[in-house]
Design brief:
By secondary structure, this protein is α+β, with helices and mostly antiparallel strands. The protein is built from four helices and 18 strands.
Length: 312
């Protein structure tokens, strides 16, 4: 009896362990990885930077991404070899009796686009012409920008199934080399992109591939500002824009502006403690005609300042 009791006590932990194993089966721990599904037509899932979408194979495909600072490049999709059909007539064939067709590899061009940086809230260049198979490499400079695909009608809204680089931080250009995302163009149709950072698209931070005369980059940018901004971009931030409507209005009111015989009145000013203190005296005749006010942020109304506020 003593031997049986001791044996039971020895076997009990093994039985409990088996029961626990049955209740909690071993499984691969991969919840810490962010699994991003590929776009339509790619048919694969990749553990890559959260927020990065490969795009549709019918328009663009993200090929690789690099976070910068000498990090390893992650290949996200194989680059597609684009071929072009070359047809030779009977006179050009060796047999001289039939027409032959051969497939030749097309010559791909690599386009580099700087995102942000010293130029301000812009893509440099803001538009390119690309053939099928061309590569576009986005280099992300100062701040934290994206290259996100949208539609012409809704410039600042991510297109369903579209390409998205995800946010690529590079504060004060401290990431060197900078973060880069490369994509391959798969169509000659116009493609539209914007920065998803809050407020950037509304200030005109847009980019286009193969814009047309009917749908230009300027129109796309103007719609981004009109739909999501509070006014035209500022030249100080590097994204000053003029819409066709503004140009038309400026033309129609040019005569009214020229008719105003006001002269520029000089003032005085100085910088104290980092602030500009200035004053100027203007007569009512120093302001433009009413019809010309408001065009290109030009105009205002006459007024006065209390003597206590005057510092000359």
């Amino acid at each position: 009896m003593k031997y049986a009791a001791a044996l039971s006590l020895a076997v009990a932990p093994l039985a409990i362990a088996k029961a626990v194993n049955n209740v909690y089966p071993a499984e691969k721990r991969s919840s810490h990885l962010k699994e991003i599904s590929g776009a339509a037509g790619v048919g694969e899932s990749l553990n890559i930077i959260e927020g990065l979408s490969l795009g549709s194979t019918t328009q663009v495909i993200v090929i690789w991404a690099n976070p910068g600072n000498g990090a390893q490049t992650t290949t996200l999709h194989d680059q597609v070899t684009v071929t072009q059909t070359v047809t030779a007539d009977a006179a050009a064939t060796t047999a001289g009796s039939a027409t032959t067709t051969a497939a030749a590899a097309g010559a791909a061009t690599t386009h580099t686009v700087i995102v942000g940086g010293a130029a301000g809230l812009v893509y440099t260049p803001s538009e390119i012409q690309a053939n099928v198979g061309d590569m576009v490499i986005f280099e992300f400079m100062n701040a934290n920008h994206t290259a996100s695909q949208s539609t012409f009608a809704e410039p600042c809204k991510l297109m369903a199934g579209g390409m998205d680089s995800g946010f690529q931080p590079n504060a004060n250009n401290t990431v060197n080399p900078p973060p880069k995302v490369a994509m391959q163009v798969m169509t000659t149709d116009p493609l539209w992109f914007y920065c998803r950072q809050s407020g950037h698209c509304g200030k005109g931070m847009t980019f286009s591939i193969n814009p047309t005369a009917e749908k230009t980059q300027a129109m796309f940018q103007a719609m981004a500002i009109a739909q999501n901004g509070t006014g035209a971009g500022s030249a100080i931030t590097g994204n000053a824009t003029t819409s066709a409507a503004a140009d038309s209005a400026a033309t129609s009111t040019a005569a009214a502006g020229a008719a105003a015989t006001s002269a520029i009145t000089a003032g005085t000013g100085l910088v104290e403690g980092g602030a500009c203190v200035c004053a100027v005296q203007c007569s009512t005749g120093s302001f433009p005609a009413v019809a010309a006010q408001g065009i290109g942020a030009f105009g205002g109304f006459a007024g006065s300042l209390p003597a206590a506020m005057m510092e000359v």
